[in-house]
Design the sequence.
């Protein structure tokens, strides 16, 4: 991947927090290269039955919107105000205290005042005041009202696609105003007139058709799993089974498709395969529900529902007892906070009980889907697997809390427990950058495109900077995480800002440390790297 | 621009009250009619808003969690930052409403060369906000002294604590000093921090100026230009008991104060001051993090187009067969 044109020092020196002389209503948006994503492919927009498929780009002067675009958006807004109390409340109660301003990674990395969460929301609120609030109708601009124009639509596109829906601002907001909710709803509105980005539309279409966002067909899925099984055997000497579409299995396992097609995700997949074999889990993969991630959730509630429906449908078809979910960020937001509402009740499943330890996962009793970190933490606590921490001695590990597991689930201690039981050397980043205050990778919610790379590097700066700190303090060389987008986008981020830090999943670390029955004499980890590296910090 | 507009609006309101109340015949208008109208709009407006908010459903269960979930029994959860039941939610909301928990978390980011980012604790906004809100609440409570006869014990209690220092005559209320200081801080903050000036609308300055004017006229009446308190109380008790009377000679300043308060009441339901009732309905704060424990129902959960397994198998049957994957239909 080509880096941004600017060197890190140059880019950093360009980040200024000074403000434009003009007020924000008078400053039109400028589409700067490297800071926005390309428009959705009309073929896939059509395939998904979404409005207004056509060829256009954000830099075009004419966006070829339908003639009554304004009416469509305002009607859409009205409809959503009736359907989402969150939107009503968030439009009405913000006091613009500014506490959220410097909490956003995109503001920190760009200095653009419209990336302050409060301003981002104001872009919508100003239109709301103009058309739906009495004060705005009477006092107009004095009450902060602004008419919806094409320029406003362009501004919406630019800034609502510069939000990764990470919800860090919502933690600091005295009223919990959730920019992710506002962003999702504005993206819905934009989509009504055919304004969306390709790295959402195309993965959505792929997921709809093939079951996963990469468009891997069933035989391709089987090939990659078979390949991983072979590779695991050559590393460990143990041949594992990886059943696919197996009816009557006890558990359906769903993980992001990048795990079986992307790197460094792949090593986490090896970790899963090794772990499931070692505990003798009766489980199955699915080709139909071969994607944990939900690109629909980046653009609309309806598409979120449509893609998510496959999880329960497949669990029902295969007759499993419950679902186990792999490491993923926004997938888990959808599973935790939306799935049961959208596609439940899951009355055809049973309350999840670990077949290995007998532990009841009370916290998942209704949705009936358990996070792999919860599952494995329980195994370790009950002494069901043997781990040799020394096998991760080539790593000095820090952990990046992925936004959604941290701020939607509160899944904070489970992954740490896994790391502490798999690694001898674990170092936390500064407290304002982890747990519920964690910083986004800067590329979530569909923004991880090559054309948007400069903005991604900017948005990822706070995370990278915290990693750099622990690298310098403690010699950290491995950034653990539990999100597929993290695994895809943190490596270029580390390369750009930090250097010398590898990225990988927590179950890669668990897989490395796992002592398997009948394994051959092991000297290398799942990446084929030696357990001990002479001369690194840990060997001192 | 926004500042000047707001300041101008306040000055007009004060001038109107001053001129109006100087005309003896308008006593009834300023002393009774306007306050009653204002309180009606205030209550009606808030009820309207809350009802309007409540008629929009909460389709999804979206708390923003700020601590460890309740999962495995041996992992210590944070019942107040990530509450899993109603008691926890009540606790979390209480911390938020009474002590501004989230603002207390506030940090200030700084970028130094390198680049090197730091996030220092920053409690000034929290301090200014909490001093202002609590002072305002205490001042409102001790005003009940003027509306009720006999004066309830708790009002006297609040009054006693607020006047604890017994400085000067009439005794100085601590909250009078605090509210003006806090408001000054909040106004200066908006004016001097460039980022805040950038985001501030007229509707951000206006309520600050308005409440400042209310507090200032109140303080002027108490400490500097004494009004006829007995008559003022007669009017207040009359209003409160729905037997309005308009005693003579209370003083113009009193009517200015009352008019400003009426303005605030009317303004309230149309403005951001709605954050007061609104926070209780904020779905990221008032829901428990029990999303996977209990099913949340969305009243408009409409059906969407899905790609069924049958359609999927129909499309890929041959390839699946070739790869040796099990099929539903051969």
Sequence:
């Amino acid at each position: 991947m080509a880096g941004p044109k600017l060197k890190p020092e140059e880019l950093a020196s360009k980040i200024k927090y000074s403000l434009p002389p003009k007020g924000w209503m008078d400053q039109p948006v400028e589409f700067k290269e490297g800071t926005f994503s390309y428009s959705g492919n009309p073929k896939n927009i059509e395939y998904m039955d979404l409005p207004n498929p056509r060829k256009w780009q954000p830099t075009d002067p004419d966006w070829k919107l339908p003639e009554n675009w304004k009416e469509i958006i305002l009607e859409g807004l009205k409809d959503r105000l009736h359907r989402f109390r969150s939107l009503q409340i968030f439009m009405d109660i913000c006091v613009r205290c500014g506490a959220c301003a410097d909490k956003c990674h995109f503001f920190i990395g760009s200095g653009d005042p419209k990336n302050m969460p409060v301003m981002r929301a104001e872009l919508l609120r100003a239109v709301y005041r103009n058309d739906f609030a009495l004060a705005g109708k009477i006092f107009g601009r004095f009450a902060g009202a602004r008419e919806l124009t094409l320029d406003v639509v362009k501004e919406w596109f630019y800034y609502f696609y510069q939000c990764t829906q990470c919800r860090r601002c919502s933690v600091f907001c005295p009223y919990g105003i959730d920019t992710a909710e506002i962003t999702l709803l504005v993206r819905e509105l934009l989509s009504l007139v055919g304004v969306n980005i390709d790295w959402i539309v195309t993965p959505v279409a792929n997921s709809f058709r093939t079951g996963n966002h990469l468009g891997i067909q069933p035989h391709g899925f089987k090939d990659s799993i078979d390949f991983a099984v072979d590779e695991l055997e050559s590393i460990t000497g143990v041949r594992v089974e990886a059943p696919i579409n197996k009816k009557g299995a006890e558990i359906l396992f769903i993980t992001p498709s990048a795990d079986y097609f992307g790197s460094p995700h792949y090593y986490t997949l090896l970790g899963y395969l090794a772990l499931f074999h070692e505990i003798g889990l009766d489980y199955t993969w699915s080709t139909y529900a071969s994607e944990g991630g939900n690109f629909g959730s980046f653009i609309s509630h309806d598409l979120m529902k449509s893609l998510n429906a496959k999880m329960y449908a497949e669990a029902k078809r295969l007759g499993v007892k419950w679902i186990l979910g792999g490491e993923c960020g926004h997938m888990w937001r959808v599973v935790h906070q939306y799935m049961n509402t959208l596609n439940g009740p899951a009355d055809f499943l049973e309350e999840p009980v670990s077949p290995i330890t007998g532990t009841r996962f009370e916290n998942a009793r209704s949705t009936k889907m358990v996070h792999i970190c919860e599952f494995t933490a329980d195994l370790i606590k009950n002494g069901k697997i043997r781990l040799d921490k020394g096998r991760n001695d080539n790593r000095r590990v820090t952990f990046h809390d992925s936004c959604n597991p941290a701020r939607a689930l509160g899944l904070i201690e489970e992954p740490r427990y896994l790391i502490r039981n798999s690694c001898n050397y674990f170092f936390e980043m500064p407290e304002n950058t982890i747990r519920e205050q964690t910083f986004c990778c800067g590329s979530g919610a569909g923004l991880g495109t090559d054309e948007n790379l400069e903005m991604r590097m900017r948005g990822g700066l706070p995370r990278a900077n915290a990693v750099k700190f622990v690298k310098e303090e403690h010699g950290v060389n491995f950034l653990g995480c539990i999100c597929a987008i993290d695994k895809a986008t943190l490596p270029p981020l580390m390369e750009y800002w930090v250097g010398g830090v590898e990225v990988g999943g927590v179950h890669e670390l668990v897989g490395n440390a796992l002592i398997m029955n009948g394994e051959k004499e092991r000297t290398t980890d799942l990446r084929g790297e030696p357990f001990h590296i002479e001369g690194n910090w840990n060997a001192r | 621009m926004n500042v000047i507009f707001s300041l101008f609006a306040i000055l007009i309101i004060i001038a109107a009250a001053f001129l109006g109340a100087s005309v003896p015949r308008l006593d009834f208008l300023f002393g009774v009619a306007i306050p009653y109208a204002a309180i009606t709009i205030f209550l009606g407006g808030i009820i309207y808003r809350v009802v309007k908010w409540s008629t929009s459903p909460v389709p999804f269960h979206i708390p923003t969690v700020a601590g460890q979930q309740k999962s495995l029994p041996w992992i210590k959860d944070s019942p107040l930052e990530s509450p899993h039941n109603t008691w926890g939610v009540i606790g979390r909301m209480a911390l938020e409403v009474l002590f501004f928990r989230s603002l207390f978390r506030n940090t200030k980011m700084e970028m130094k060369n390198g680049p090197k980012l730091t996030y220092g604790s920053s409690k000034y906004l929290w301090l200014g906000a909490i001093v202002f809100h609590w002072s305002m609440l205490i001042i409102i409570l001790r005003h009940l002294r003027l509306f009720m006869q006999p004066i309830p014990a708790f009002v006297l209690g609040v009054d006693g604590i607020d006047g604890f220092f017994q400085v000067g005559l009439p005794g100085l209320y601590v909250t009078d000093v605090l509210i003006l200081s806090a408001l000054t801080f909040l106004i200066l903050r908006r004016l001097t921090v460039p980022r805040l000036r950038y985001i501030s609308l007229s509707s951000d300055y206006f309520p600050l100026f308005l409440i400042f004017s209310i507090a200032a006229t109140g303080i002027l009446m108490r400490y500097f230009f004494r009004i006829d308190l007995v008559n003022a109380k007669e009017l207040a008790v009359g209003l409160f008991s729905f037997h309005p009377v308009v005693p003579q000679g209370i003083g113009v300043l009193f009517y200015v104060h009352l008019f400003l308060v009426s303005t605030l009441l009317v303004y309230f339901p149309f403005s951001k001051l709605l954050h007061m009732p609104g926070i209780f309905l904020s779905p990221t704060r008032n829901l428990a993090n029990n999303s996977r424990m209990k099913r949340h129902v969305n009243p408009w959960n409409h059906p969407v187009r899905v790609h069924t397994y049958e359609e999927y198998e129909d499309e890929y049957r041959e390839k699946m067969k070739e790869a040796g994957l099990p099929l539903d239909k051969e």
Q: What stands out?
A: Chain A touches chain B through 118 residues (CB under 8 Å). Chain A has a mean pLDDT of 95.
